[in-house]
């Protein structure tokens, strides 16, 4: 197994993009800005005098069809794709400047955010990275759905989904999440929906900014998007992307194996809250400390 990166990172230079919010339909400009060590991921509403909302489980507001954060009444919506990218690509500290309430959906995947990070470049800080290492298994379940995490020396996903559509059905994905694996195997997977549910979602005030340029739509007998799917199991890969983004709300890179069976945003966030409310489930440790233990272990 490759050694864990020892130091926190941030981006080298600012980068920006423009787009629309998936659910709100509002136009938004997003700018990523370097941040000092120990800052974490912090959203800034530039339309509200730079008001800051940290990307933390403590500020989760809504988790139905997206994960939204709120602090003192200020909302940041649909955070999961961007946070998934920071977490998986190993970005610890960055300011995310938004001039509206929702992160832009762009093409519905995390691939554009990966490209933004490549354009921005990454640099190490002098602060040692603290990992959150799971030491005892923990799970959350409701009838027919379950999510759990158990100890592991890296970050590993085991994701299972089921949707009663002939092109989806049961799908599974297992992988160690590394920057390379994420960029190649998970980031390009787009958000998706079913034609039969579109009117209901619009009536709920959702997907006002959705189009076939920003989401996969499954019709009764096929995919409505020109060019079809990017992966045969694109829905499962996108659910894995969402899962990582919700786990990123822990605020530290995670060492553990997550098993998700038909879980969604609400269950992801419930697991995070369970972990963070019980310090006996985890330890906060540096890569150097783990390396020292590995060297000492054979002598026992």
Give a short overview.
The protein is built from seven helices and 19 strands.
Rg estimate, integer Å: 19 Å
> What proportion strand?
25-35%
Look at the helices and sheets and give the structural class: alpha+beta
Distance between the termini: 21 Å
Low-confidence stretches: none
Major sheet characteristics = 7 strands, mixed
- Molecular shape: globular
| Count of discrete alpha- or pi-helical segments spanning 4 or more residues | 7
Secondary-structure element string: EEEEEEEEHEHEEEEEEHEHEHEHEH
Percent of residues in helices comes to 10-25%
Provide an overview of this structure.
With 300 residues, the protein is an alpha+beta fold. It has seven helices and 19 strands. The strands form five sheets. Strands 11, 12, 13, 14, 15, 18 and 19 form a seven-stranded mixed β-sheet that branches. A five-stranded mixed β-sheet has the order 2-3-9-4-5, covered by helices on one side. Strand 6 and strand 7 form a beta hairpin. Helix 1 crosses helix 2, helix 1 crosses helix 5 and helix 5 runs parallel beside helix 6. The longest helix is centred in the last third of the chain and has 14 residues. It is globular and about 60 Å long. The two termini are 21 Å apart.
List the helices and strands and how they pair.
Layout: E1 7-11, E2 15-20, E3 27-34, E4 41-45, E5 51-54, E6 60-62, E7 68-71, E8 74-76, H1 80-89, E9 94-98, H2 111-120, E10 122-128, E11 130-134, E12 138-142, E13 145-150, E14 155-163, E15 169-176, H3 179-186, E16 192-194, H4 198-203, E17 216-218, H5 234-247, E18 254-261, H6 265-276, E19 282-286, H7 287-296
Parallel strand pairs: 4-9, 11-18, 14-18, 16-17
Antiparallel strand pairs: 1-10, 2-3, 3-9, 4-5, 6-7, 7-8, 11-19, 12-13, 13-18, 14-15
Helix pairs in contact: 1-2, 1-5, 5-6
